[in-house]
Amino acid sequence: MTALEHLANADPALGKFIKSYGPLKRSKPDFTEPYEALLSAVAHQQLHAKAALSILGRLKDHCDGNWPAPATLLAMPDIALRACGFSGAKTLALRDIAGRALDGTIPTRARARHLSDAALIERLTSLRGVGQWTVEMLLISNLRRPDVFPVDDFGIREGYRRIHQLEAQPKPKALAVLAEAYAPYRTTAALYLWRAADAAKPPKTPRIKPESNKL
Prior knowledge:
Elements: H1 3-10, H2 12-21, H3 34-44, H4 49-62, H5 70-75, H6 78-84, H7 88-102, H8 109-112, H9 117-124, H10 132-141, H11 154-163, H12 172-179, H13 186-199
Helix pairs in contact: 1-2, 2-13, 3-7, 9-10, 11-13
């Protein structure tokens, strides 16, 4: 039985959406290493993506266009990190991530293959500024783990509400129990629930630029 067949049998409403939506198209992971993904995650916290990417771009420019190695990041003075746009709290988080990469708490991608989802969540949520949702996104997007289901994610709960035509989103604990039926393909279920939430959003109205008075 394929993942999609399993999900359709476990949840006919989800199966109906999967059939209407069609196959998922997933892009390649943005980062090769968990260390880099965590640096990016901290930069994006409480910021729009464009602003976060600008900050990360300045950080890379400081390191000849590359992600700073952990030792390089630790050697950077606070004033340099603040000049890139990192707040004081984010600067402390970046330094903790760099230090924990050096001591092996943050595994390389190769070593991460030998660690369970639970072990990675336990390790990485010990880092300053890194919560469970951030680690779950890393597991799904970068490490491509097949059975991860972030119950605290608004989009997943909204997608579930939409396809089941509920008046309110299920609570995280209740959704965790419901999602047990999706195992061992909970990541695929999560991806489709995100699509269901996005599909329900009204289309953006295109912005019309005012015409120039010049002839």
